[in-house]
Design goal:
Helix content is about 35%, strand content about 20%. The chain is globular. The chain binds flavin mononucleotide (FMN). The site of flavin mononucleotide has 26 residues, from helix 1 and strand 6.
């Protein structure tokens, strides 16, 4: 069983590749949360995986939300792993995961990191198409390595993307995400065609369409940027970043 979260396809791609290599099935957190499915029988599972993007050197808040509610019935020390996708560095996101799991009596057996295209456009422009392709090609080696280790239930720290001082990075920057998440910078232009796709895609029901345009609820938004990247009319922007930092969905996976 592999639980995954993904806004722009990188983690979905990785989760699908690992599922194919291990013959496991996928649970998409957005669907699980929508259907309030928090209890899973893992009696017959030999591996339990989590695949997630890295946010501010930590976990997306949706992971915290889901893990706090999650019950794994039939857990008896199976192999549990975490694969973090990132633009460059995961920091100590796995440390957060280990703590959340420990609180449930579950041990994290292994962690992996896969550097992919950085989708955080509030901070800068997306890579150009060639650089993106190169990065996605290079990611294959990381995914293959993770798949092999997961198949053989390799235990330990396989994450080569934690950066120089992972604990310090997470401790200093994650609070900006955990406590400073605002939806005010989202801007909707007149290009909006009121299709409602942003509302449908939003993994945490943070968007409602009001007078034909999206309105964000700060409390719920996890800042995954699915709405911005996947707006078919390119009508959603991040105020300070302007309109030209690009839009991304992993071209190697079906939306
Ligand atoms: C809110 C936010 C914060 C991010 N923070 C980091 C980070 O701390 N380190 C990093 O390397 N990439 C960071 N990224 C980039 C994503 O982790 C990366 O692009 C990831 O592969 C996206 O996964 P997805 O396509 O499955 O949504 C961030 C992206 C977002 C949206």
């Amino acid at each position: 069983m592999i639980f995954y979260f993904s806004a722009t396809g990188n983690s979905k791609y990785v989760a699908e590749r690992i599922a194919a290599a291990t013959d496991d099935h996928l649970v998409y957190l957005r669907d699980a949360i929508r259907s309030r499915s928090y209890q899973y029988d893992v009696s017959y599972e030999s591996r339990i995986g989590f695949v997630s993007p890295t946010y501010f050197f930590g976990l997306p808040s949706i992971l915290h939300f889901f893990l706090e509610k999650l019950t794994l019935t039939g857990y008896k020390d199976q192999y549990v792993y975490l694969v973090l996708t990132c633009g460059a560095s995961t920091g100590d996101a796995a440390g957060q995961m280990a703590k959340l799991l420990k609180a449930k009596g579950v041990t994290l057996s292994a962690q992996f990191g896969v550097p992919m295209v950085d989708n955080y456009v509030p901070l800068g422009k997306l890579a150009d198409r060639e650089a993106m392709d190169r990065k996605l090609d290079e990611a294959e080696e990381y995914i293959d390595e993770a798949s092999r280790a997961i198949r053989s239930k390799g235990i330990g720290d396989y994450n080569r993307c934690q950066g120089m001082t992972p604990g310090a990075m997470t401790a200093s920057l994650y609070p900006l995400y955990a406590h400073g998440r605002s939806t005010k910078p989202f801007v909707v232009t007149d290009a909006c065609i009121s299709c409602g796709l942003c509302q449908e895609l939003c993994p945490c029901a943070a968007i409602t369409i009001t007078d034909g345009k999206p309105v964000w609820t700060k409390k719920q938004c996890v800042r995954c940027l699915a709405c911005l990247h996947r707006c078919p009319a390119e009508a959603i922007h991040w105020k300070k970043a302007g309109e030209n930092n690009g839009r991304y969905y992993n071209p190697r996976v079906q939306p």
